[in-house]
């Protein structure tokens, strides 16, 4: 396989782009080597600028749940473009997408569209503070909530537990109201509530994708709900990644919890920049123009993005691929585990609906500390072997792999061969 054109573009890109990318994970820092530059994609496949074709398990980090270039979405977007691309005034499309989203989440009466998952979370946190009149937010190590200052507390490291910023440029004051707990450890949350009486909200990924896939235990998630209620704090479920991924609606329903505020993104924009936050009327009425919490956006509710969202969710409802996702993910899990066993590689596989990922460890993964026992050097080797065998994976041990509804038995067979060959490389 040659990557000559990607290598050339990388060098050229470094001149005027930071690291030749617009989002750091795309730089392949944690797996080494030259990042791939993409030319185009269709269905379950993506092609790089050297003409190498891969089964795509990145899917733009989640949004492309129908695969690339779904005909109905493409048609809806093209039609919308012809009517004008942005108006700075309301459209019927916003109302239609809001209805689809609210109907899919019990307890969500109103939603506000923004332009990214980060914006959804920062607005949800402002809303929680506005509604409760309190300041502190509990987050979990290993959960990523976008790049707003207050959520950029280094997950899982020693620094994280001290609430020190995990990025240069974030002032310590920006994270002094962020408290860190351990995922699946209710006691670590209780400890904060015992110490502080000004906690506005607890935010979590109801199933994580940003430390790899980790599900909450029943005791943990139900305990969080009860505790937040008891302490008059809100529960924010960040479903930017999980929303509409494993059922039509949220992961909340599958894990048995109902959030006070839900954050969305990725799938609801069908490949365009859309985020959203929603809640019951009483909470949402804090938001301007109904209430005193200001939040705005020039391109929020953009008509093209709304058309992509409406057509994606409508098609998703019609296709109802969720049972298929479980079956495919189970097959993938079995492939990974049986090849690992054959080659004597320590491997744990976690999955949830259309999200799955292997950890190169022999320890059950229930939180970020467990995830970090994974051998990242082995992952890097596996990643490049999978590339050589025609599979595009997220270039990080700690990112979930995604399935699209376009995956068929043909791709599964190719995946089986690629996994087998890549596991053999690791065992060498
Ligand atoms: N929240 C979660 C759970 C995410 O996975 C992400 C991005 O991956 C975000 C928030 C931030 O979304 P965005 O990258 O659209 O700003």
From TrEMBL:
The EC number(s) attached to this protein equal: 5.4.3.8
Query: Which residues are annotated with the PTM N6-(pyridoxal phosphate)lysine?
Result: 266
Q: Which cofactor does it need?
A: pyridoxal 5'-phosphate
Q: Which GO terms describe its molecular function?
A: glutamate-1-semialdehyde 2,1-aminomutase activity; pyridoxal phosphate binding; transaminase activity
List UniProt keywords, sorted A-Z. Answer: Cytoplasm, Isomerase, Porphyrin biosynthesis, Pyridoxal phosphate
For whether the record's keyword set contains Isomerase, the answer is yes
Q: Which organism is it from?
A: Wenyingzhuangia marina
Places the protein is found: Cytoplasm
Q: Name a single GO cellular component.
A: cytoplasm
Superkingdom assignment: Bacteria
Q: In which pathway does it act?
A: Porphyrin-containing compound metabolism; protoporphyrin-IX biosynthesis; 5-aminolevulinate from L-glutamyl-tRNA(Glu): step 2/2
Which family does the entry's similarity section mention?
Answer: Belongs to the class-III pyridoxal-phosphate-dependent aminotransferase family. HemL subfamily.
Catalytic activity, reaction form: (S)-4-amino-5-oxopentanoate = 5-aminolevulinate
The record's section on Pfam families has: Aminotran_3
Assembly and partners?
Homodimer.
PANTHER family per the record? GLUTAMATE-1-SEMIALDEHYDE 2,1-AMINOMUTASE, GLUTAMATE-1-SEMIALDEHYDE 2,1-AMINOMUTASE 1, CHLOROPLASTIC-RELATED
Q: What is the lineage of its organism?
A: Bacteria, Pseudomonadati, Bacteroidota, Flavobacteriia, Flavobacteriales
Quick one: where is this thing mainly located?
Answer: cytoplasm
Specify the protein name.
Answer: Glutamate-1-semialdehyde 2,1-aminomutase
Q: Which SUPFAM superfamilies match?
A: PLP-dependent transferases
